[in-house]
Amino acid sequence: LPTAKSSSSSKVRRTEVYAKKEPTVRNIDKIQNERIERRENQAKQRHVRDQVKAKHDVNDSQWEFAEMIEDWRDDNPAHPPHHKRMNYKINVCVRKRPLNKKETKNKETDVVTRSGEILYVHQPMTKVDLTKYLENLAFRFDYVFDLDDDNRKVYEYTAKPLVESIFKGTRATCFAYGQTGSGKTHTMGGEFSGKNQNCANGIYAFAAEDVFKKLRQPVYSHLQLTVSFFEIYANKVFDLLNNSQRLRILEDKQGKIRTVGLVDQVVNTVDDVISVLREGSRCRTSGQTSANSNSSRSHAVFQLSLVAPGRKTHEDRTHGMFSLIDLAGNERGADTMSSDRITRQEGADINKSLLALKECIRAMGKDALHVPFRGSTLTKVLRDSFIGEDSKTCMIATLSPGFSSCENTINTLRYLTSISYVQIIQLALD
Length: 430
Ligand code: ADP
Ligand code: MG
Known about the structure:
Layout: H1 10-20, H2 23-55, H3 63-75, E1 90-96, H4 101-105, E2 112-115, E3 118-126, E4 132-140, E5 143-144, H5 151-157, H6 160-167, E6 171-178, H7 184-189, E7 192-193, E8 196-197, H8 203-215, E9 224-233, E10 236-239, E11 245-247, E12 249-251, E13 257-259, E14 265-267, H9 270-286, E15 299-307, H10 314-317, E16 318-326, H11 333-337, H12 341-365, H13 377-381, H14 383-386, E17 392-399, H15 406-419, E18 426-427
Parallel strand pairs: 1-5, 1-17, 6-16, 6-17
Antiparallel strand pairs: 2-3, 3-4, 4-18, 7-8, 9-10, 9-14, 9-15, 10-11, 12-13, 15-16
Helix pairs in contact: 6-8, 8-9
Bound molecules: adenosine-5'-diphosphate (ADP) and magnesium ion.
């Protein structure tokens, strides 16, 4: 209560009046004041909630997770990436595509965050008592691309260093791995505008361009570039430069694999390569012979071979080879549930070949004497690429950022952690 000394201030005078009231009246006033305060607070909270909801979707169960992810990002500011170009035997990078129209329309939350070389996936979880929380998984890679990094930049950090090595007479491979719709074909074959693909700005074309640049040096005047392009569907090989002609693969006594009758086209300019790519891509997407209306169910292999034409055997002729592979979509869930036998079989074949690929890359990383290449047609045709001390590979994992792809995203990242034990560390974070 106020003292006589402080009675001059208006605040205290009001309190004096208040103090003079009967205790019951005083209590009623107090309760009323508290109620007003409570209502004001509730109104404030409601306003904040409405603002958040308006930003997302009123009927959307994701908005709470979206808020949690935003809070997490506020608390953990992203680090910039390093600018080193890796040249390891096995190089693993990740590229997240922007949310597409459908995801944006559905107000899907982006559940993937980059910070330097670490990629975080915010997995939405719900406890038994229905409380929502995030599980934040972290994966470290050789390089993680930013949303506005284009195909050229992706190329420079992944396939470009491997062009050098094929001139040294070795084998190199570059894979695009990820779920359907995550951007494998966009990265390898070139950007899409609608359904049209610009074959000139994908990794296939960039690699060819650099090979030509180097071929102009007099020391390589005895070499020539040839290209082949084929797809593997249901463990069968189809030549994309010959109307999807089915090809047999043979293994000779030394274990060498040959794809009989594969078109090996001589190319002299980047434009030659681009027209080959156009022909092959058209063949792939229209592919009736392989019974796959959906190109995402097949692996596409584009090979750049440096050949010395004067030599007698194919073996002698091939100086170095760069295989660039747009892998089949790795999503599995929908397949195993499907009632369609063909879809289930396709899914099983894809899964088997991706597991075989993983085993071969692991063996390659350890310079193992035995590479288990017989596990699938894909690994058979790439056999030579896994053997040899100097052979190199890079894997570009493509991710769909949306909430609905979260499980596939985590599966993609887990697959990568099992390939390269040195460069990928999975951090257990909460
Ligand atoms: P996948 O081959 O993995 O099934 P696509 O390469 O066909 O996926 O990409 C699916 C769609 O997403 C395409 O329409 C493509 O234009 C778009 N897309 C993919 N990656 C990117 C990217 N990095 N930036 C912008 N759009 C992309
Ligand atoms: Mg594709």
